[in-house]
Design brief:
- This protein is α+β, with helices and mostly antiparallel strands and about 325 residues long.
- It contains ten helices and twelve strands.
- The strands form three sheets. Strands 2-1-5-4-3 form a five-stranded antiparallel sheet. Strands 7-8-6-11-12 form a five-stranded mixed sheet.
């Protein structure tokens, strides 16, 4: 082949190579767009070297890192695992590497650069072996699940907490009653506010809501940790106390809650005063939540009939 023919052949090969590079670049851009659009990060681990190849940059961005700020190494990934999840995640990974599981999958937390927590769904599978059948590379994806976990947490909050005060709602109180009565003696306190209607009529319902929020915070503050405070609705509250009726803590908590209601409330448009009538009973054997609550309600009404603002043991 002449020199001229060789030069022409080289030019043709260069053009073909440039075309292939453009096609590869275009394909890479489309892959990045597709992965970023779905929130997926594609990764590949070279097991012998511990190097990670990240095919798009969502992994670093997800953890708050700028491009090339974090090293793409298996050791770096391990250090980013949440300490409460690390052992379980690594077990799932090595179970796959050792042939104990057909693939690697873990839903776990990672620590971001700023110390925040990111939830990740991580999946992978061995994609290459050496001549002796030992795993060389693992290829997989992970996706940021933080918003989904936050949404899940919000749903759980709505399902079990009063939306205004964040105290336990009736559903959560019923569940807590069933759980607590299996473990200890249990007292139920029914709290009905006195003169709350006057607050709504005088200051408005918005101020009335602010008062309920403040009172809920006070109740949470005066109740020791085992006590569950909840709101049934309106101005009706409930306490579940894991003590027998003769335990001095029962009367002590009751009086503290009464004082929390009697202490004036500073609102945006003035100072409001209310009171509370509190009836307390001990749950009987085989008695359900509704029955115990009804008896506590009766004990509370005896206080109201006798002048309000008091604590009565039924």
């Amino acid at each position: 082949m002449s020199d001229e023919a060789l030069r022409q052949q080289i030019q043709i090969l260069k053009k073909h190579n440039a075309r292939l590079k453009r096609i590869a670049h275009d394909a890479r851009s489309k892959l990045d767009a597709a992965l970023d659009g779905t929130g997926l990060c594609l990764w590949q681990l070279d097991i012998p070297s511990g190097k990670l190849v990240i095919f798009n940059r969502r992994w670093g961005a997800m953890l708050g890192y700028q491009p090339k700020e974090s090293r793409a190494l298996f050791s770096e990934w391990k250090e980013s695992l949440h300490p409460d999840d690390a052992a379980e995640v690594l077990k799932a990974f090595y179970d796959h590497i050792e042939g104990k599981a057909p693939y690697y999958e873990a839903l776990h937390r990672m620590i971001a650069k700023n110390g925040g927590v990111t939830w990740v769904l991580d999946r992978g599978r061995i994609s290459e072996w050496d001549e002796q059948g030992r795993p060389l590379k693992v290829t997989g994806t992970h996706i940021d699940m933080t918003k989904e976990k936050q949404y899940e947490s919000q749903l759980a909050m709505l399902a079990n907490h009063d939306p205004l005060t964040q105290l336990a709602n009736r559903h959560a109180l019923r569940n807590a009653f069933s759980q607590m009565r299996r473990e200890n003696a249990l007292c139920v306190a029914f709290i009905d506010l006195d003169d709350f209607k006057h607050v709504n009529d005088t200051f408005g319902h918005r101020s009335g809501d602010r008062l309920l929020i403040q009172l809920s915070q006070r109740l949470s503050g005066v109740c020791p940790e085992p006590v569950v405070a909840g709101r049934l609705g309106g101005d009706e509250f409930v306490l579940l106390m894991p003590y027998g009726q003769d335990d001095p803590l029962v009367a002590q908590v009751g009086r503290a809650c009464l004082q929390a209601a009697l202490t004036p409330f500073e609102l945006e448009n003035g100072t409001a005063t209310i009171g509370a009538s509190i009836g307390i009973v001990q749950a009987q054997a085989q008695e359900g939540f509704s029955a115990a609550l009804s008896r506590a309600d009766e004990a509370m009404y005896r206080i109201k009939r006798n002048g309000k603002n008091g604590v009565g043991l039924g």
